[in-house]
């Protein structure tokens, strides 16, 4: 039983960490210049589409 709780806790922590990473990455896109976006293969429109996604979007 304790092993299940521990796995659940680790799973929730991992999911939260991934969510934070995605949120930070999307937030960072907002401040990149057009040249920096081109370097990573995105247009301004694609970046803004990504930034505007819901917090729960995968």
From TrEMBL:
Protein name, as recorded: DUF1127 domain-containing protein
Upper taxonomic lineage: Bacteria, Pseudomonadati, Pseudomonadota, Alphaproteobacteria, Hyphomicrobiales
YjiS-like domain residues: 12-47
Pfam family for this entry, one: YjiS-like
């Amino acid at each position: 039983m304790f092993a299940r709780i521990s796995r659940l806790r680790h799973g929730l922590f991992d999911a939260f960490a991934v969510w934070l990473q995605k949120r930070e990455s999307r937030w960072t896109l907002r401040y990149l210049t057009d040249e920096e976006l081109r370097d990573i293969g995105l247009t301004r429109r694609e970046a803004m589409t990504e930034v505007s996604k819901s917090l729960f979007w995968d």
